[in-house]
Amino acid sequence: MIGFSSYAGVMESPMNSAEEQQHSSPLATSWSKKEEPNKNQKPKGVGGFVLVHAGAGYHSESKAKEYKHVCKRACQRAVDQLKAGALAVEAVAAALVELEDSPFTNAGMGSNLNLSGEIECDASIMDGKSLQYGAVGAISGIKNPVLVANRLLSEAQKGKLSAGRIPPCFLVGLGAHEWAIGHGIPPCPSEKMATKFSLSAYKRNKRKMEVAEEMDTGRNQTKKKRLSAENHSGCLDTVGAVVVDLEGNVAAAVSSGGLAMKHPGRVGQAAHYGCGCWAENACNMNSYSTAVSTSGIPQYTHYTCLGQKQIFDENVFFTSYFIMASEDRVLGGVIVLRCCRCVEAQQSQNIQGILVEFLWSHTTESMCVGYMSAQDSKAKTHISRLPPGTIPGQSLAIEGGVCRLMSVAE
């Protein structure tokens, strides 16, 4: 299934399938040639755009309101930061904190428990302006792992440590926990991070695992594979966000509790460079600023480096399909944002803006997303679902739109 809706301020104009087939990039003809801004001019006012997701997996109808609500809150947190003058990287971190604090997402509070019944989280963040990155893997006892990743990034931007030492950008396990505490991030006991939902899911998965281990390896191999696929499809994975500020800086972030019943110490794609997220401002070789955040079974995003590949393929809308379609029953999702600075030809040259193209796609049963610009009064949310009767991992849903952010140069 492939469907699009177009978003531009308060106006919407849906695109039909015929229009999609006419262009390799659905909005290619609407992009204006990039203009170099006058360095002596600063945009009047503030603005920006955020797109978030609450994980690729299965979002039950009974909890649809909660999933949408947390996406709305995450968008609002990011927009509040943008309106206060924060850059994209701070806004995207704020969005992730809201997603981690929700008991309904597999990130931070309420994350999946590992084989030992403990919560270990992964998170990463990337700044498109500096191309610097911060990440933590298999970290326990920290309520908001993305704050540790963001602090690693900001500390690295300060330069070398004493005696010329290189600051870390990726820490794991106990070392990550101790570094976080040493840099003022408060600890949170693991038992307080577990919720009734995550604990009951752990008990359920443990029973399923015990049953699967009792099955005969040869005679019941097919049944075991089906059980494994059902487990992956039924849970939520990495949450994420992508942001552009009014200066055109982009940033991306992801956070995850990892797969249910994972081995202690396992680090998923949410922490790996080029896999969980990617952000890169426009440069001489690339006319567009692009930010990507992925979600899905880590092996496939590891092997494909899906986050980074989205940047280098001109047709960002359909890259994810060809990558994920190369494997059998791949379960995952991605959100992508790209933008360029433009000047409206029919208007005064003092009117500048940023044209933002965005999408989400998934092969899982569903994916909950939210998006908002600083010009909007509230966020829009949507639970994208595969068509009834289709098999997760063998079908792809794609939706997206465009937003134009305008500003007046002083």
UniProtKB/TrEMBL annotation:
The active site is at 238 (nucleophile). One of its GO terms (biological process) is protein maturation. InterPro entries: Ntn_hydrolases_N, Peptidase_T2, Taspase1. Residues 13-45 are annotated as: Disordered. Residues 14-31 have a biased composition (Polar residues). One of its GO terms (molecular function) is threonine-type endopeptidase activity. One of its GO terms (cellular component) is cytoplasm. The record marks 237-238 as: Cleavage. It holds the Pfam family Asparaginase_2. Belongs to the Ntn-hydrolase family. This is Taspase, threonine aspartase, 1. It comes from Anabas testudineus. The gene is TASP1.
